[in-house]
Design a protein that fits this description.
The structure is a homotrimer of 444-residue chains. With 444 residues, chain A is α+β, with helices and mostly antiparallel strands. Helices cover 22% and strands 23% of the residues of chain A. Chain A has 2 domains: 115 residues, Rieske Iron-sulfur Protein, CATH 2.102.10; 292 residues, Naphthalene 1,2-dioxygenase Alpha Subunit, Chain A, domain 1 (Alpha-Beta Complex), CATH 3.90.380. In chain A, helix 4 crosses helix 9. Chains A and C meet through loops of A and helix 8 and helix 9 of C. Chains A, B, C: Pfam families: LigXa_C, Rieske. Chains A, B, C: Keywords: 2Fe-2S, Iron, Iron-sulfur, Metal-binding, Oxidoreductase. Chains A, B, C: It comes from Reyranella soli.
């Protein structure tokens, strides 16, 4: 339970807010690369951290992310022409490059130096891992890109999608870190009938030969025991459930500062999934979902499956709006809810969205009642709010300076009850916190 | 004419407002019974007096009306499962019965007493007269259900519908109590052509063999003389018009605290109509319309007629939204207005809605000019505002303690000019205020 | 660049604002005459200067523009009956004439004088130049109608249309006065292909036999030299561009207080165009576009062309909403933008709207950077804001008392470089400020 003031502190990310300042110390996905497919193509309006921005891909392939209004008379550069290494305002032809420099100002004579005094706000961008990233913080604090494994692999080994969500980014991250909810929200009631099999298949818990054990263990133990361990880039969140015997079934997530989370499902040889939450404004966010296989390319069949809404990938339209969303009640089917799945909503991603959106645009945390299974949520808030408070006191976030430490994995394991999380991690990933950077030459 | 402060006092009904406190001393219709047709069926979102609530019918047939957000993490129980005498949150399975008790809390061990400390806000409900009623006031002040005649009769003798209206509830009640407007708003211009006959038939003024006299009297006298008499449950409002001879044509309504009104039309042997206004928020309300015949069942043909929009019943869609409404300008037909009916809008209920909505979401009463025909409106405001002021001073409303005194009737009569309203009522209904409770064993 | 306070001062026109007071000293177009085609026809809701009003054409052909709410109980007279020289409220039959007098009050006895005390707010109206004009200022300050040439001519020689625009009226006027933007916003890229020819034809720059010179001159000189000259009714704004030789190509506009502007294109023998901006509220306006030929009737073919969206006439639907508008991104075609026209948006009027709307509902002038080509905008603001400040100090606007001085023309000319704007005007129009009133008997 938070005070009203703390809830606002946690959830507000606009310019000048403490949490907004913290987020602005990190690179944010701004677009999928596919959203700006061609050089000199149409610019695209975007909104990030409450700021309206314009993105365009220049003649040289670089991407500009800029303030959309022309400094001359305020016309929106969205209607401008993206041509010859710059975007030219449709009103009077003022032209700006991806760095915000005014490269042509035709209402002044060619010999005038007026244009050297005109600057368009432009944020640094990078293109990496099939996404366009933006850094919106102070220029002198610009960090390295976080070395997520999906970006270190060849493009053939990863797949990235995005979706809109109608709630504050924080409650959506909290939903991802709270893996206890798998026992209910994503549960399948009658796992032997055809519809239930299809639901399980879509949920991706069943994409291996013998997943029934895991499903049963999750179903039978709604009270996993949590262990949380910090590291330079974030938090390791382990949840241990009972199995049929003495062993424990561990589901282990990673939270990576300030807005990435890895799912806890993958057994060795399976596909890994992660998500990144980027606030549009305080009542909505974009969720970038990436998955990867460290050892092999993803097949076309797998990519088609992700596009159809699989695991935490959602089924979206051409504007990345989920087909099942707040406005159509997620197409909840009450008969399916009665007989087949716990929610009657199709898709793990959509089940998550329904519950997270249902808390309201910003969850009222003054009325919540947290318990032992919410410890991941509690530690996440401490890390985030502590980071924002430290930054206000002048202490820069350690994670921003630890780009290589983002090279981690998360997933599932079955282990003897005496083993603690560090031991389970060491056995599963070769490192107590799941670090795999040495495989990519990022040091030990 | 009211001051701005008095207008707000009169029209605001949210939690903590004086008028909201007064309304919360009475039972309110919350739903038609048909809206929760089956046990363990889908829950339904409702909004009453500015409060977002969730209604569900439990396994035992009882109805719960509760705060929609789960106390655990704030997920909306609307997505929950209505099963085995309670609604279970889809997020982590916390479960609540219709009284708001937490009956299962699976994230804590079975032996934990944590769930005994968790309570979901739940309001008392009753099901009576084909409606589900809710009481949203202090538990120790809970009154008896108002003994409206429609609820005392067998279900075969009544019919209940509901409709949405896009304005504050008070101006809509005022429209019902002001029976002077029948001379204009519901008037038919050319009563001898086919279209006019159809309009009259729909208006229900003509469902008797020889209604032409009443129509003519209403049309010829736009200045009825009003007499208002108080009683324990509300106000008796009589309006006397000239007839062709010396007699007066009385149209007599009942206002029953705090939000019921009976129409003034019924002659002996005719059907009686009443309405109840329930604020959704301050700019909209639900209107429950009930009609009944004290002496016989209503036929299927009559029920079909009500569903098609007859008398004060509106023609609505599956969500109880009127087919002719603010968003489509009530399908006003200016040719019909020129030649056939005074408004060009089809249906008495829709004509009322058009005029009442047209005042704005909340009528600006600082600019009105009331006259002698508005005395019913004036007395209604006095009763309501006086009741709210008294309650603020610690005096409970008498009507809430007078459930049996709601057993009254209202209707029309023709009487010699020397007879006053009390005499007319005594002759028409056997009681000076129209009380008929003795017929149902409710005392004299 | 304006301060935030000055920007609000310039753009706010509601009741009680300084600019609103200034605008209310002038007649405003309220409707096209065609919007109230028949006597006793349906009334029409309108909104002007932030005021919701109701317009109706009476039995005698006069137009009333009144407060829409009946003084009795606040019902909207829009649902009333327009009959026998007045509009009658549908609720209780109170009736008002076009001057706001209560001419029938049936809820009081015929002998009552109560109705003489009841008054409905009604603004004076005139019908002139195919428009219905309204004066919303103090009655004792009512001016003459501005003697625009289009209104002095027979109806056969003019054409008037209107369109909705989704931004504050001031930035839209500023777009019209800033004729430097023709070098970009309305430019055609490849003027020899078929699509480009069609675009040019629609833009009306090419409706003469040999317009190619003008197009080339506009294209080649994006830095016209401005000269601004004041006169009693407004401002003369001349912009001189280089031609192929020594001569200058002058494009000369008129701004007429407080909200008319004439386009700078017409050569002798061509059609003249003007526009008038009427704020609906501070974030939207109606633009009335009128064109005329001083010497001949306009043909049916020309009228059809205007309706199809030609020159500053827009292509609109039955409610005067532009077919290409903010909600559909002006149907921008990025391929056309790449190859054929500078914007990819069809129509000069729509290109203007796109750029003007794109500044936001109210342009943030605290961030603009004006230059030499913006001098017309600067002088316009000085005149308007100066007028509003003077009025606050008790000095009435001179233009309101100078109705005859609105009889001016504007247009294009080619002249020797030594000639100043006054000389060019004298040669082109016979008067240094373009006054042609003597041709209509309005004095010298």
């Amino acid at each position: 339970m938070l005070s009203k003031a703390d809830n606002e502190f946690l959830t507000q990310s606009g310019p000048g807010t403490p949490m907004g300042d913290l987020l602005r110390r990190f690179w944010m996905p701004a677009l999928l690369s596919e959203e700006l497919p061609v050089r000199d193509g149409p610019p695209k309006k975007i909104k990030i951290l409450g700021e309206d921005l314009l993105a365009f891909r220049s003649t040289d392939g670089r991407v500009g992310i800029v303030e959309p209004h022309c400094p001359h008379r305020g016309a929106n550069l969205y209607y401008g022409r993206n041509e010859e290494c710059g975007i030219r305002c449709a009103f009077h032809g003022w032209k700006f490059d991806v760095d915000g420099n005014c490269v042509d100002l035709p209402t002044s004579p060619p010999e005038s130096t007026y244009k050297d005094t005109i600057k368009l706000l432009a944020y640094p961008t990078r293109e990496w891992g099939d996404m366009i990233w933006v850094y919106m913080g102070p220029r002198e604090k610009i960090p390295e890109l976080p070395q997520l494994e999906m970006g270190l692999l060849p493009a053939s080994s990863r797949y990235v999608t995005k979706k809109w969500q109608d709630c504050n980014w924080v409650q959506s991250v909290e939903g991802a870190l709270d893996t206890a909810h798998f026992s209910f929200l994503h549960a399948v009631l009658a796992k032997d009938d055809v519809a239930a099999r299809a639901a399980l298949a879509k949920a991706a818990i069943a994409d291996q030969a013998t997943p029934d054990d895991r499903i049963r263990w999750i179903h039978n133990d709604p009270r996993p025991k949590f262990t949380i361990l910090g590291h330079d880039a974030g938090l390791l969140i382990g949840a241990a459930r009972k199995t049929d015997g003495a062993d424990l079934y561990w589901r282990i997530s990673q939270f990576l500062m300030p807005n990435h989370a890895y799912t806890p499902t993958a057994f060795p040889g399976e596909i890994y999934y992660g998500q990144c939450w980027v606030p549009a404004d305080d009542g909505s966010c974009w969720i970038y979902t990436y998955c990867w296989h460290p050892d092999r390319p993803l097949s076309n069949a797998e990519r088609a499956k992700f596009d159809g809404g699989f695991n935490v990938h959602a089924e979206v339209d051409d504007d990345y709006m989920p087909l099942r969303n707040l406005r159509n009640d997620y197409l909840i089917d009450r008969k399916v809810q009665k007989h087949t799945t716990f929610t009657g909503i199709e898709g793990v991603s959509e089940q998550d969205a329904a519950i997270q959106d249902s808390m309201g645009p910003i969850q009222d945390r003054t009325r919540e009642h947290l318990g032992p299974t919410d410890v991941g949520v509690v530690e996440f808030r401490k890390l985030l709010m502590g980071g924002a408070r430290s930054l206000q006191a002048g202490i820069e976030p350690k994670a921003a300076a630890s780009a290589n430490r983002y090279a981690v994995r998360a997933g599932g394991a079955v282990a003897a009850p005496a083993k603690n999380l560090e031991t389970v991690m060491a056995e599963r990933f070769g490192h107590a916190r799941g670090y795999i950077g040495q495989q990519y030459g990022l040091g030990d």
